[in-house]
Amino acid sequence: MTFAPEWLALREIADAEARSTELVDVVRETLVNRNRLTIRDLGCGTGSMGRWLAGRLGGVQHWVLHDRDPRLLELAEAGMSAFENVTVETREGDLTELRAADLAGADLVTCSALLDLLTTNEMNALAVACVEAHVPALFTLSVAGRIEFDPAEPLDAAFSDAFNAHQRRVVDGRRLLGPDAPAAAEEAFVAAGASVRTASSPWRMSADALQREWLKGWVGAAVEQEPALAVEADDYLRRRSEASAVVHHVDLLAIPGAV
């Protein structure tokens, strides 16, 4: 699955405001004695995670940006070039095939808004890879399956349930985790022998451009899952575009016992 650069640019500010800075504080404490950090960013998109995190980590850093879309990798590499003491390389390919040997030498593995696109087996394998490589993982903005509108209305639950079911759909024989990703990630890392901390990272929107664009995709996916909702979709979309909305996410920091 690939994403349009325009969508990634639109959400970058909301992502930056939502991510947990408290978990970053723990990362800095964990890596305090390392004077050159190597960070592997999985599913990097246009590099928004790197732009958000590099300045917060400080010091000399080398980022390895992974994505399957070469167009996004070019944008990500260019977007990271403005940082002093930061070097970048890109890796194109399927990140679900990464194993511990591929993460050798990394000080931190990161991703943003990625885990819902994995399967349970892929999530388990990623957790094992990080723990066996003795590398902490900071995984941000995993969808939690909860949306709050103000004012609320009865149809919210129907559209939310349909969207969540759509996120759990089977794609090319793969059952996606969707909103089950935060719990699956925590379970996988604990089972692999890591300590886990989580923090909420909600988007808070108020009838803005991001909300309007997000709603189109959210309502569209719900209707694709439950076609009976189509008769309500246009009016519902108009009403919800005028409400405020909170889209809940979860950030997770996993630290292997050997770190």
Automatic annotation (TrEMBL):
Domain (Methyltransferase) ranges: 41-127
**Any matching Pfam family:** Methyltransf_25
Q: Name one GO biological process term.
A: methylation
Superkingdom assignment: Bacteria
Which is an annotated GO molecular function term of this record? methyltransferase activity
* Assigned keywords, A-Z: Methyltransferase, Transferase
This protein is called what?
Answer: Trans-aconitate methyltransferase
Task: Tell me the organism.
Answer: Lentzea aerocolonigenes (Lechevalieria aerocolonigenes)
**Top-down, what is the taxonomic lineage of the species of origin?**
Bacteria, Bacillati, Actinomycetota, Actinomycetes, Pseudonocardiales
